[in-house]
Amino acid sequence: MRITRDLGSSHAWTLYEGELDGRRVFVKRGADFTSEAAGLRWLAEPGAIAVPEVIRADGGELVLEWIEPANATAGAAERFGRELSALHGAGAAEFGAPWPGHIAELPMDNAPAPDWPSFYVERRVLPFVRSARDGGWLAAEDVKLIEEACALIPEVSGAAESPSRIHGDLWSGNLLWTVERAVLIDPAAHGGHRETDLAMLALFGAPHLNTILAAYREAAPLADGWRERVPMHQLHPLLVHVCLYGEAYHGSLMSAVSQTLAL
């Protein structure tokens, strides 16, 4: 493989454009990309949505097919909403995944749980509460409020749904737009709740979000109260950001906690 361009760095890894057997490729180096590769392949299995082909994942290197980016359009956003609903509808065997989880450079526990509230609280929220507390970013009173919100989640998470096949870190930066559609990159994929992906799209403002949501809801209607539950689903990613970046996300996290307690 020949490296043709340095694309800078992200988190703990470096990024490159390269050429392999006459193909343009995207290259990440500097970490164990087993989880990312497994997640990409799993998301690609149903053929419901665009995901870059995993060409190689070994030796601290991930090689993906090159995706030529373009500006997001309303048409591509509408298509993405339909495709995301199809991906979620493909389902998962359980809440969790059979590979180790990662989000950015942080490990996550993907061990299965019997229901979504248990999985979310025990595998996604509380471990990052402990990390943020130990890092000095959460005070004792913050931890107490988050634990109170977690105790409420089984009651306020809506009607039980079977596991959806979700991206798991679907903020706008992990959507690569092409002329025709959106391509999913950098997943933290697992069997989870479909509202989690939608809440992540809203967290940092995906382009044409209303168009995406309208197309999604037309294809797969959401349970009553889904809008009010958005902050509950954002607890995990906001905790991740507190662990990664500290005080800058403390206010947003505690606002989501307050809104969850008010459900």
Question: Describe it for me?
Answer:
It is a single chain. The chain contains nine helices and eleven strands. It is an alpha+beta fold. Helix 2 crosses helix 6 (209-219), helix 3 runs antiparallel to helix 4 and helix 3 runs parallel beside helix 8 (235-245). It has a five-stranded antiparallel sheet, covered by helices on one side. A two-stranded antiparallel sheet has the order 6-7. A hairpin with a 4-residue loop joins strand 9 and strand 10.
Provide the gyration radius in Å: 18 Å
**Number of helical segments with 4 or more residues:** 9
One letter per element, helices H and strands E, the order comes to EEEHEEHEEHHEEEEHHHHH
Major beta sheet, strand line-up: 1-2-3-5-4
User: Beta fraction of the residues?
Assistant: 15-25%
Helix content, binned percent: 40-55%
Number of strands: 11
The shape is: globular
- Runs in which pLDDT lies below 50 for 5 or more consecutive residues are none
Nearest-integer average pLDDT: 97
Largest β sheet strand count, sense and barrel closure: 5 strands, antiparallel
Measured distance between first and last alpha carbons: 53 Å
- The helix-and-strand class reads alpha+beta
Helix/strand layout:
Blueprint: E1 2-10, E2 13-20, E3 23-29, H1 34-44, E4 54-58, E5 61-65, H2 74-89, E6 101-103, E7 106-108, H3 116-134, H4 140-156, E8 164-166, E9 175-177, E10 182-184, E11 190-192, H5 194-203, H6 209-219, H7 230-233, H8 235-245, H9 250-261
Antiparallel strand pairs: 1-2, 2-3, 3-5, 4-5, 6-7, 8-11, 9-10
